[in-house]
Amino acid sequence: MSLSVILPLPLPAARTGPGDREVRARVVMITLAALLALTAVASLSTGASGASFGAALSALARGDALDATERVILFDIRLPRLALGMLVGAGLAVSGAVMQGLFRNPLADPGLVGVGAGAGLGAIAAIVLGGLLPAGLAVYLGHYVVPVAAFLGGWATTLLLYRVSTRGGRTSVAVMLLAGIAMGALAGAVSGMLVYIADDSQLRDLTFWGLGSLAGATWTKVLAATPLIGAALVLAPAMARGLNRLALGEASAAHLGVPVQRLKNTAILTVAGATGAAVAVSGGIGFVGIVVPHLLRLLTGPDHRYLLPNAALLGASLLVAADMVSRSIIAPAELPIGIVTATLGGPFFLWILLRNRGVLDL
Amino acid sequence: MPLASPLARIHLALAGALLGIAFAAAAHAQSYPEARRIVSVGGSVTEIIAALGALDRVVARDTTSSYPPRVEELPDVGYMRALSPEGVLSTRPDLVIAEEGSGPPETLEVLRAASVPFVEVPEGFDTEAVADKVRIVAATLGLDEAGEALVRDIDDRLTAARDSARAATGDTPPRVLFILSIQGGRILAAGRDTAAAGIIDLAGGQNAVTAFAGYKPLTDEALAAAAPQVILMMDRSGDHAADDDALFAHPALTTTPAARTGSVVRMDGLLLLGFGPRTPDAVERLSEALAQTVADAE
Amino acid sequence: MTLIARDLTVEAGGRPILRGLDFTARSGALTAIVGPNGSGKSTTLKALTGDVAHRGRITLDGRELAAIPPTELAARRAVLPQAASLSFPFTVLEVVRLGLIDGLEAAQRHLPHDALARVGLAGFEGRYYQHLSGGEQQRVHLARVLVQVWTPVTPEGRARWLFLDEPVASLDIGHQIEVMTLARDYADAGGGVVAVMHDLNLTAMFADSVALITDGRCDAQGPPARVLTDDRLSRAYGCRLRLNTPPAGGAVYLLPQAAGGPGEAGL
């Protein structure tokens, strides 16, 4: 599914230069909003059961009662799943774009601030050691032990990394990058130990968690993830100008009046919150955070004032669409969504890269 | 047990809580004799339903349910621990019977919300566990009599198979190493409290690995120290002769007695480890194979 | 209105780079900082712009520089770094627009184009920054810096400032003169300009005041004719230098002083 097919816009030619991209960015924004609306409706109407959302709505409008199964499928499965897909997709894509802007590197992803490794460790610990929790806590958390642990793991790792790389009120992005690699290795080692003591069925759970899925979508998860991912989506536009100027380097950004340290604080904390929440509720869905911002940069340029909202829209559409594939391709079973994003996204991304070598060499 | 009075059920529940989860589950088994659209989750559960002659009441199964062969014609709702909520509901089930550990919990929650009855069947790796499973499944389906008959049948055959197996191997049970996988030269072996250990014991062998519980990678030295006389593996399609060569080319395995005699037994995974109605057959075949390889070695 | 630095001290890795340096720049004037390699020219500029930690006092119009809020400072002062990096494929126009101060964009839409024309890059708006030559990139950044402090004097009558770190380092002689004339005009219109310079000819030609830095101290500051003497330059640069002396034996030499105005081919 090529964007230039969906949008009647040529990708910028590498040599002559793209001209003024602001108008194009606005057109893309409107198109992506329409695309998201379409994907959302399609997602609500697609599923193994063949239950129809339109039919249900008109039944409700007529005042007819839905049968229990239909009600559950539409309101307890598809709706929370759609909401969670949009939240997670938008959250991951915006987090990726913010991190790339902050680290001034198109390959940066939220994993760089330790969220991925920490959340993974939290989830593995919960799956393997969940039985050791105090009974009261275990009952209270119920089957939300894994998402809660994943979120706490991701958040704690980021805070630690942030402390390590901040001296005298200044955060060194380079130290953070290197410390992130060290922490990732450490988290990997501890995860490895936990995997070693895990039993057969826990190993299966770990594998499925790592592949990511929206199958466990519940309203509770949607409500828990909304404030954290919502905060990132709301604060992102306020960061856009600062991130644009950060492309000139920290000193130049500061001379342009950007409160660089405050920008770093906001970016790191909101990304940690949003990515932590996304990973917690959906497991390891990779790819969205790097591919979506990259595609949009090729299409409308690196201006974060357009990149961030467009990334939210495209990320949401992409994940909702991928989820549709994941739950219909081998219905009534479903494919983990991480497999879908990787198998569809990987070759497409490669094709885009090859087609745009000229721009990428910049 | 479906007819127990409320008071008796409370007593039973208390007793169950004290005596262990397996018993509690048995005590609680609900009966759904009317159920005609059953989703069966877990290979052994599906086999038990088939053995009870109730397969026509099943409308869908999970990925691990592959026997008898005609269940493969039924829609597959996914791996038992990663069931798709809408996938299960789309089959319009009036009952879900699932092996212990099926999930994820979110899917079970959705089933509850949709008022689909859900019965969990406890897992276990010995004779009693098989009987418990059969009783619970039978009670759930409202086939208690057929269930008791099946329990007796399995028990008789299992006792016979086990006795003849023990008679064959006598005081020197062969040391058997079950290898789950040998991916990348790393040997994942079965320790204590596994289905593999259970079936090896029933078939008159002794598990060569007792240092840990569950399936874990085995170091090369521990492998040599385990000194297995027979290697037991799951059957996969492909060239077994070549597989055996590759297996014994593994440096740590070359020193074992099993390598010297080339003793490898391969059996279908579900048959071997399912702990269901076919377990007596599995014991019979495994013990024959063990006796054969031991005899060949001598 | 003046920028005054007193007793500036900067250390890097335990080694002193600046040792109690004094420096003064007036608005309405172009103040050049010259000196041999490693003398602390660029460090002086970085201390003046707050990019390196330093001891000593810096005041702008009598106000402690560190006490001025960043956004207020950004509206008063722009800094052109020696080597500007840029991540992501921005176009020339997008880079220049980064210099627009928040909130005034609608009113200033034409400014980036004017600034590009001013540095000789009219028509480059839609090109990728990364496709330009080093000298063109340097001038894009100059345009960006100009946009930030476009009018040399604020409506309240305060001077705006340009801090330029080797603004002509990678430019050909034509563009060197063009850029220096631009800086000169900015000062003439009432703004303040502080520039780190390597080229002593251009310094002598355009600067009102020259600060000669040697070994982390200001050796002398004043009008070029007073600071740039044979003795002082010879001592500072460690080789014998003579002003206003044609080469022996009639070798060819070229002085920017003899060039015409920017854009004048003069044929």
Description of the structure:
The complex is a heterotrimer of chains A (362), B (298) and C (267). Chain A is an all-alpha fold. Helix content of chain A is 75%, strand content 1%. Chain A has a two-stranded antiparallel sheet. Chain B is an alpha/beta fold and 298 residues long. Helices cover 47% and strands 14% of the residues of chain B. Chain B is globular and about 60 Å long. The N terminus of chain B is likely disordered. Chain C starts with a strand and ends in a 30-residue tail after the last helix. In chain C, β1 and β2 form a beta hairpin. Chain C is 30% helix and 23% strand. Classes of the chains: A mainly alpha (362), B alpha/beta (298), C alpha/beta (267). Chains in contact: A-B, A-C. Chains A and C meet through α10 and α11 of A and α2, β6 and α3 of C. Chain A: Keywords: Cell membrane, Membrane, Transmembrane, Transmembrane helix, Transport. Chain A: Belongs to the binding-protein-dependent transport system permease family. FecCD subfamily.
Count of helix runs of chain C: 9
| Residues in helix, % of chain C | 25-40%
Net shape of chain B: globular
From the coordinates shown, what is the CATH architecture of the largest domain in chain C? 3-Layer(aba) Sandwich
Ends apart, CA distance between termini of chain C: 43 Å
Major sheet of chain C:
6 strands, mixed
Percentage of residues in strands of chain B:
5-15%
Mean pLDDT of chain B: 85
Return the CATH class of the largest domain in chain C: Alpha Beta
Portion in helices of chain B: 40-55%
Structural Rg of chain C: 19 Å
Structural class of chain C: alpha/beta
List segments of chain B where confidence is low: pLDDT < 50 over at least 5 consecutive residues. 1-27
CATH superfamily of the largest domain in chain C: P-loop containing nucleotide triphosphate hydrolases
Number of strands of chain C: 10
Q: What is the residue-averaged pLDDT of chain C? A: 90
Count interface residues per chain for the largest interface: A-B, 34 and 35 residues
Main location (chain A): membrane
Keywords (chain A): Cell membrane, Membrane, Transmembrane, Transmembrane helix, Transport
Family (chain A): Belongs to the binding-protein-dependent transport system permease family. FecCD subfamily.
Subcellular location (chain A): Cell membrane
